[in-house]
Amino acid sequence: LLKTHMQPERVLHVSSQNASTIFPAFADRLEYSKEEKKIVITLHNLQKNDSDIYVCAVVVKNSSFLSVHSSGTMMLIKEVEQTDCSNSSWVIYGLILVVVLLFSALTCCILYHVNMKKYFQKRKANTVYEDMSYISRCNTLI
After folding, report:
1. Transmembrane segments in this chain: where (predicted)?
2. What's residue 48's pLDDT?
3. Are residue 50 and residue 93 in the same domain, yes or no?
4. CA distance 25 to 107
5. Chain-centre distance of CA 78, in angstroms?
6. Average pLDDT in the 47-71 region?
7. What is the DSSP letter of 18?
8. Is residue 51 part of a domain?
């Protein structure tokens, strides 16, 4: 596997005896697997300077001749701005805290203004007593 345009360099060399060489720029960032005549190459932790056209080439034995069978694969790596999520999460936690405190204050005000004792005390039944004895009936004016 070769990088061909921006910074021409070798990336991976696999011999017919399955001996492989991963070149230093990709040493910790390249994995490959080989099944018969098929090689699957995976690059990790891509960087902006990895942008290039990658081609697979065959080296003819006992020669420096390279045979390239396709136009290659173009990889364009763009840097992505990383946002600092820790600051925005503190804002969210702060807003949640303010809402909880305001709700608690509102609940306390409502409970203070409403006389809660009268709702939880046992109510005495409204009872009217009438004296229906004979003596009380005799003293009435006719």
Report:
1. 90-114
2. 85
3. no
4. 64
5. 22
6. 79
7. S
8. yes
Read off the pLDDT of residues 14-55 as tens digits, 9 standing for 90 and up. 877 778 888 888 888 999 888 877 888 898 888 888 888 888
Residue 29 lies in a domain: yes
Residue type, 91: V
Is the separation of the CB atoms in 4 and 49 below 8 Å?
no
Quote the pLDDT of residue 64: 67
Distances (CA, A) of 140 to 79, 94, 114, 132, 134: 107, 77, 47, 12, 11
43 shares its domain with 98: no
118: domain range?
87-122
> What whole-number distance in Å separates Cα of residue 102 and Cα of residue 96?
10
Q: Say if residues 54 and 68 touch (Cβ distance below 8 Å).
A: no
User: How far is residue 2's CA from residue 14's CA, in Å, rounded to a whole number?
Assistant: 12
Q: How many domains, in total, are found in the chain?
A: 2
Is 109 found in the same domain as 57?
no
Whether 132 is in a domain gets the answer: no
Q: Write out pLDDT tens, residues 84-138.
A: 656 677 888 889 999 999 999 998 888 777 766 666 666 666 777 666 666 655 6
Mark whether 66 and 117 lie in a shared domain. no
> Residue 9: which H helix or E strand, with range?
strand 9-10
